[in-house]
Design brief:
The chain is an alpha/beta fold. The protein is 33% helix and 29% strand. Bound molecules: S-adenosylmethionine (SAM).
Length: 224
């Protein structure tokens, strides 16, 4: 296992260990933009059979399931998926998957992921987008929610002077984990994914509250 594999495995362990507290945390974290997010989900193209990657405790799964025909929600952490299953959403199925080692068994009308792309290191970025492309019907849409640099205030310590930006996180019991965390500027992200076959627009969310959430809606232009 190389250093990056080791860090990605730590990243998974960090979220497994955090699962029990995560749902309350994410609800509180997203609260300032909750109404806007509801509007964006309701007017989004996430209406057919939707794949949600890295669903966590299901904050978004629940909201998307209200507009989608069906949601397939994947996460690396069974502890997170147990919380999603506990929501008893009739049109949602869950499965455990390591998204860096997952082959899509089918293609979906739409793909959604929130607070996930920031955790994809540059060295796995193209491979990850190949997976997204393979999982999406040619007419499909990718919707992303992620964080711009204005959200860095949540970090106790960041090391971002390299091609592998790292956040040093601490659990309540004091254990420390290094995780990948890239706070993309929206234009920088759109430029990065354009050669990978995806184009679209970025909508800032929560700016009036000093927050840096970004909502992206993307189309697949071509296979790469
Ligand atoms: C910041 S949370 C985001 C959860 C959810 N999307 C949200 O916005 O609340 C990141 C999620 O990625 C999952 N994760 C981390 N590494 C993963 C991997 N290699 N494959 C699949 N999921 C992974 C974690 O278990 C965690 O649920």
């Amino acid at each position: 296992m190389d250093d990056l594999d080791e860090m990605l495995s730590q990243q998974q362990q960090y979220y497994r260990e955090r699962a029990r507290d995560y749902d309350a945390w994410i609800n509180n974290y997203l609260l300032p933009a909750e109404k806007k997010f509801e509007e964006l989900v309701n007017s989004s193209p996430l209406t057919g059979d939707i794949l949600e990657m890295a669903c966590g405790s299901g904050y978004w799964t629940e909201r998307i399931s209200r507009v989608a025909h069906h949601v397939t929600a994947l996460d690396g952490s069974q502890e997170m998926l147990d919380i999603v299953d506990g929501r008893q959403l009739p049109n949602v199925s869950t499965a455990q998957a390591d998204l860096f080692n997952w082959n899509p068994p089918t293609q979906w009308d739409g793909i959604f992921f929130a607070n996930w792309l920031a955790h994809v290191p540059d060295a796995r970025f193209e491979q990850f987008w190949r997976t997204v492309s393979a999982a999406l019907l040619p007419t499909g849409t990718v919707v992303i929610m992620d964080v711009a640099p204005a959200e860095k205030f949540i970090e106790e310590e960041v090391v971002d002077d390299s091609s592998l930006p790292i956040a040093r996180r601490r659990l309540k019991d004091g254990r420390r984990f290094d995780i990948v965390k890239k706070y993309w500027e929206p234009e920088e992200l759109l430029d990065r994914i354009s050669p990978l076959g995806f184009t679209g627009k970025a909508t800032p969310v929560g700016q009036e509250a000093g927050r840096g959430f970004v909502w992206y809606e993307l189309e697949k232009r071509n296979e790469f």
